[in-house]
Design brief:
This protein has about 550 residues and is an alpha+beta fold. The protein is built from 18 helices and 11 strands. Strands 1-2-3-4-11-5-10-9-8-7-6 form an 11-stranded mixed beta sheet, with helices on both faces. Helix 1 packs across helix 4 and helix 3 runs antiparallel to helix 4. It is elongated and about 105 Å long. The termini are far apart.
Length: about 550
């Protein structure tokens, strides 16, 4: 074989491989069309001559049941199309069975041999493509909103077609019980009622369900241990990755097992918190794996609170991006208490130390940490602020969690009056949980942060993160996206709901660099709703977000 012929065969081979790769989507479209055809033939009259031939061989009730069953099979084919699209093994097998059954019913209900031949041909072509459906079985796929709208529109169109066809038939209650051979409209009414009921039930279930939520919750002890080992190794770890050790999020590991991503499922949105933890080479494969996992359940992947370093990878995934705030990062080598802008910090430090205060940073495993005392302090802080513990994107008081990272405590005469845990990363550290006694001296948290920043510098850590200021940095300009304009308005006017401006002003006195944080999701996902899901996960539901949970 010469080189030109080999090149031509190679080109055709690649084309055949491409067609084979997209065959599940092709069969999904054909399966959906086949289901629509079956429903359409069930809600419209059969050929009179053929129906008469069938009536001579079969009892009327049998024909009527075949008519009804064909409409149900057609509806099930509409559902199975979503499973075919997602390459489900079970959907492939069930589709073949339903196509064969549908062909038989097409003959029984009116000798519609053309429709039966089309269904059998589709089943025959689908049969040898078994290997293209390589995902484990989920017979009826959880429908995405777009699939659900398509299905409901198809059902509504078919029902309209039936009512239009029989528009000249006067309605009576007897039509529900008359056999098909007496008046064919009766079969249509029964089929229409059942299909409409099935569509309503399916729509309600789809809107209220959270596919994958029950099976993707807290990690197993083995998964938690693997994640902890990656965090302790430190390579490619951002400080926020330590939130995974709270145990309230599911974990997904990269194919190599050297990196992981923490996430939670709410509704149809699979929300990953922060960036993948682990070597940079594992980052993009892990992002793809998470997006494909969410898609396999009919969900949408969402990446919350990601930094600029991840934007190129998220663009590779085709994600839409919006800024959701800024994080305050202090450069430890440039931090100083000198200058007029730091006068309030100097005053707080000097006053606290005159009163006998001292900051101690206790590493994991070191003595001197009384969790019972810290628990009492934390409870007093929550009671004073009439609040409850947060979750997901924020830490909470959990002895196991707090014992895994350094803890900065402020003591006065041996009594702990304030504390904060410090989450270490590859080249920085971040503050997460911070609490103080209601009667602690004014400025105690300023004092704790100043000494913690100085400790980080001594440890060789270049960045000290004070955490996120939500909605900060969004601009209300005419050409800005609606998401940014609304966010900027909430930041400026939403003080009654949350102290957005006050939080940013407090962190600004440490003279930090403000680094943008983003939320990313597929273009079809409403980002405001995704951000609402983050708030609900963090607050523990609507009661927590509205301040009604105690």
């Amino acid at each position: 074989m010469n080189r030109a012929a080999g090149h031509k065969l190679g080109r055709w081979g690649r084309l055949a491989a491409l067609v084979y790769e997209v065959s599940p989507q092709i069969f999904a479209a054909l399966g959906f069309l086949a289901g629509g055809v079956m429903i359409a033939s069930s809600v419209t009259p059969a050929f009179p001559g053929r129906l008469a031939w069938v009536s001579e061989a079969l009892p009327p009730v049998f024909i009527d049941l075949s008519h009804f069953a064909a409409s149900v099979v057609g509806f099930l084919m509409l559902l199975l199309a979503a499973g075919l699209w997602r390459r489900r093994q079970g959907a492939w097998l069930a589709a073949i069975v339903l196509l064969i059954v549908g062909a038989g019913l097409s003959l029984l209900k009116g000798l519609d041999w053309e429709e039966a031949a089309e269904l059998l041909l589709l089943a025959a072509v689908l049969w040898p493509c078994r290997r293209a459906f390589d995902r484990r079985s989920r017979l009826f796929e959880a429908l995405s909103p777009s699939w659900l709208l398509l299905l409901l529109a198809t059902v509504a169109g078919m029902l309209w077609l039936g009512f239009f066809t029989y528009r000249d038939v006067a309605y009576t209650d007897d039509l529900w019980w008359t056999l098909v051979t007496d008046q064919e409209v009766s079969g249509f009414l029964r089929a229409a009622a059942v299909i409409a009921l099935m569509a309503v039930v399916l729509a309600g279930r789809a809107l209220l369900s959270a596919p994958g939520a029950k099976s993707h919750r807290a990690p197993t002890p083995e998964e938690a241990a693997r994640a902890l080992a990656i965090l302790q190794a430190g390579e490619g770890v951002t400080p926020d990755a330590w939130l995974a050790s709270l145990g309230d999020k599911a974990l997904l590991f990269s194919p190599s097992g050297r990196a992981f991503l923490a996430y939670a499922v709410r509704g149809r949105r699979w929300i990953a918190i922060g960036e993948p933890a682990g070597p940079s080479g594992d980052r993009l494969p892990l992002l793809w794996a998470f997006a494909e996992l969410a898609d396999s359940y009919g969900g949408a992947p969402v990446f919350y609170a990601v930094g600029e370093d991840l934007l190129s990878d998220l663009a590779t995934l085709g994600m839409a991006l919006r800024k959701v705030g800024e994080t305050a990062v202090v450069r430890t080598d440039a931090f100083s208490l000198e200058g007029k802008s730091k006068q309030n910090l100097r005053t707080a430090v000097n006053r606290l130390e005159r009163e006998g205060a001292a900051v101690e940073v206790i590493r994991p495993g070191e003595p001197g940490l009384d969790m019972a005392e810290l628990r009492a302090l934390s409870d007093a802080w929550l009671t004073h602020h009439k609040g409850t513990e947060k979750r997901f994107s924020l830490g909470r008081f959990n002895p196991d969690y707090l014992s895994q990272t350094p803890l900065a405590v402020v003591r006065i005469d041996g009594r702990v009056v304030a504390f904060a845990n410090l989450m270490p990363g590859s080249d920085g550290v971040a503050v997460d949980l911070m609490r103080h006694l209601p009667d602690a001296p004014t400025g105690v948290m300023d004092y704790l942060f100043v000494r913690a920043i100085q400790w980080a510098r001594i440890e060789g850590l270049t960045d000290f993160s004070l955490g996120m200021a939500p909605l900060a940095g969004l601009e209300n300009r005419r050409l800005a996206p609606v998401f940014a304009r609304v966010g900027a308005l909430v930041f400026e006017e939403g003080g009654a709901l949350y102290g957005f401006q006050g939080l940013r002003a407090y962190k600004s006195k440490f003279d930090p660099d403000w680094r943008p944080l983003f939320i990313a999701a597929p273009a079809s996902t409403p980002l405001p709703l995704a951000l609402l899901d983050v708030a609900l996960l963090t607050s523990g539901g609507w009661l927590g977000m509205l301040g009604l949970k105690r």
